[in-house]
Amino acid sequence: MSENLQKEFDYFLAHQQELARQYSGKILVIKEQTVIGVFDSELEAIQQTSKTHELGTFLVQKCDPTEESHTQTFHSRIAFAQGN
Q: b or e along 63-75 (b: 16 or more beta carbons within 10 Å of the residue's beta carbon)?
């Protein structure tokens, strides 16, 4: 995780219980240690937020009061084509 996103994740951890009371089960977008978006799915969060913020500059985090939400998932938009 980049240093920039580590700060966002640390913010989430520090405020996890309070955020979970307000947004439990939602997907949060965190940038500059502020929640800038709340969504129902990771895909929606990435699609909507990337319209106004560069990819890699914000954290997409499931909001859950347990440590289960601490896993990291990395996605790639790579497509493979098989030649003839």
A: bbeeeebeeeeee
